[in-house]
Amino acid sequence: MKSFSIDSHNGIILSQSHDIFENLALEDWLYTNYDLTSKDLSVLLMWYNGPSVVIGRHQNPWIECSVDFCNSNNINIARRNSGGGTVYHDFGNLNFSFLTPRIKYDRKKNLELICESIRTASKLGRNNAYHHCTVLVNVDQTKLRQSLFRNLKGVESKATSSLRAEVMNLKLLCPDIDTIKVIEAVSNYYKQLHGVENVFCVTPNEDLFPGINKIKSQLKCWEWCFGHTPRFSVTKSFQLFDKSRKPISKVEIMMNVNKAKIESISLNPQILKKENFNALSECIIKTPFTIEIHDSLAKWMHHCDDKIMCQIIKSYILEIIQDVCR
């Protein structure tokens, strides 16, 4: 089967997939494989997905969304290749990618095609560019808020932060509107603007887009979605008690994390014996920042000679990670 091509004409592509990873892979495939500059092409890609949270390339998923809520409610978490903030997708919103030669990159012109309640992100390459944006038509705003609600304390991050803003469905302004009608309206306007005749309805697969499965696999893996997270630190203080449960002092635990792996840990004051703390550091450094660290901590505990104090620190470390990862 011949791979997909729009030859020498501007085009509109409507994905038939509702899988966030397939659609992000399609966007990346078009951006990477099309020579938009030499052919002076402009392409509009449209799609909508099942429930998903999509974070920007340089963001921290644990800060931007409730990972635990998303996992419990079958909401995919994906990291896109373009920058910008975090958005919630479901069948009630519509996604656009305006792919153009970089010299023709014009966000204002693109936004004139669509309406209110929009969040945008973009990716500029040496020759090509794309402007990615989302329109809320009739999104489930309850799940949107629950998915994106975070109130983390004690976390400092170098990641790009989303700008929180109130959003509104177009359905509230125009009760008769739906996703299909928005697709038709934007398609018709784009056709007039760019001299496009047809809308290509495509299913992202290996036959039409050779290499797309590899892109999808890369976007879907933990190493990209979580492991690409910029450096951050998390600090939390805990109250220590004596045997009668009387408060005696506090200990502050700080962990530095980079690419979703623990880089270092410190205790203030240092309440562990030197050999126990060194063993702790050796045990958890370069370990993924996930609750699965429990196994590594259990091995550390096995060799500790101060079981009570080490058990306390173990429980505090797990509490920190649970707070961030929930």
Walk me through what this model shows.
- Belongs to the LplA family.
- GO terms for molecular function: lipoyltransferase activity.
- InterPro entries: aa-tRNA-synth_II/BPL/LPL, BPL_LPL_catalytic, LipoylTrfase_LipoateP_Ligase.
- With 326 residues, the chain is α+β, with helices and mostly antiparallel strands.
- The protein is built from 13 helices and 13 strands.
- It has helices at residues 20-33, 36-39, 61-64, 67-72, 107-111, 141-148, 170-173, 179-194, 212-220, 222-225, 274-284, 293-303, 307-325; strands spanning 11-15, 43-47, 52-55, 76-79, 87-89, 93-101, 118-124, 128-136, 155-157, 199-202, 232-241, 247-258, 261-268.
- It is elongated and about 80 Å long.
- The two termini are 45 Å apart.
- Mean pLDDT is 87; it is low at 120-126.
Mean pLDDT: 87
Low-confidence stretches: 120-126
Instruction: Provide the structure class.
Output: alpha+beta
Provide the helix percentage. 25-40%
Our count of helices gives 13
Cα distance spanning the termini: 45 Å
Q: Could you say which overall geometry the principal axes of the C-alpha atoms support?
A: elongated
Q: What is the strand arrangement across the widest sheet?
A: 7-8-6-2-1-10
GO molecular function: lipoyltransferase activity
InterPro entries: aa-tRNA-synth_II/BPL/LPL, BPL_LPL_catalytic, LipoylTrfase_LipoateP_Ligase
GO cellular component, one term: mitochondrion
Family: Belongs to the LplA family.
